[in-house]
What does this fold into?
Amino acid sequence: MIRDINVDVAQATAKRVTGAGGIALAVEFDLADARSVRALFDTTVDQLGGVDGLYNVAADASANVLRRRKGRPRTATRTLSSASTDPTQKEGIEMNVRVENRFDGKVAMVTGGVSGIGAAITERLLVEGAVVVAVDIDTDAVASFTKQHDSTRLQPRVLDVSDADATRTVIEEVVTEHGRLDLVVPNAGIAAPGNAADVTLDGWKAVLDVDLNGVFHTIRYALPHLAATHGSVVSTASISGLGGDYNLAAYNAAKGAVINLTRSVAVDFGKQGVRVNAIAPGPVLTPGLRQWLDARTDVRDLYEDHIPLGRTAEPSEIASVVAFLASNDASYITGVTLAVDGGLTAWTGQPHVMG
Ligand SMILES: NC(=O)c1ccc[n+]([C@@H]2O[C@H](COP(=O)([O-])OP(=O)(O)OC[C@H]3O[C@@H](n4cnc5c(N)ncnc54)[C@H](O)[C@@H]3O)[C@@H](O)[C@H]2O)c1
It folds into this structure.
């Protein structure tokens, strides 16, 4: 029985890989036999020139799907505006962005949606066909983002998400205007420096008001509408919600709370067909961070040293994960917080002292 299920999963995976322009190799062998596993890899690399991915679906006799690129990777069906200027491509790291039309006819709201990570999320959802209500407290940033993006599907608005009534009003107006709401991305966030003893009370309250209460308001007032469309929530938490940082007590508290709020809402609203997830980015090269790292190359070196993938993320790499979690590709995922951190939280933090 288990074997049958695994074969089904292998076949579905192979179909997906070939559909995306790759070559899928479905094989069955004894995984415990290291020699035959090695021989299989060697033969595959000899015959096809490489192996780009491995999907292992069984614990005993197993079907493994190996994928290799055939010539150049298939190009995106649409191009992301930021992809061509992505510095990671210049460094030879292949992004292989494949953009689909997963949000045609859908209405999304992104908070903090006109700068940094939020702007990348707004752009990704627009490229994939959504109507995007990008809200932000910064009037000038809203105006300049609107000027840069010539799309009738972009609906920018000024909103302070820490204001519960204002957030409810905007959500109600969006539903009145567009007839539906399929996705909210509570992403607006701020930080204040300080540990628990010296963070200012104003700083503490401001961070909790935006990073936690703002997320709560957005989710709370969107929920009835998301239940009507079987929609979803993808909140921007942070790796700072998964562990503690030096001198970021308020931010750590707020982001940790967002991660557990995600679980709580997922549990309460799963039966109504609403999926609720979050992402936990590591350091992302938003214009603010890029400026800081340009001035502090010592800090840039530290990041590159500590992050297993050896670099900070591009905003587009965060946006693509939000789009995945919001899409039907993630139709059986709810209540999770997905780290998008280049492996940073996979590391215990112990110094590299073993040999
Ligand atoms: N940049 C990173 O390295 C990083 C890492 C992990 C998590 N995050 C999180 O990602 C999210 C986006 O951060 P970013 O780096 O793009 O920052 P950013 O400052 O570029 O963007 C945040 C946006 O939120 C808006 N905003 C602030 N307060 C608001 C309010 N009360 N109502 C509505 N909008 C408000 C700001 O005007 C700004 O446009 C935040 O939640 C942040 O905590 C960022």
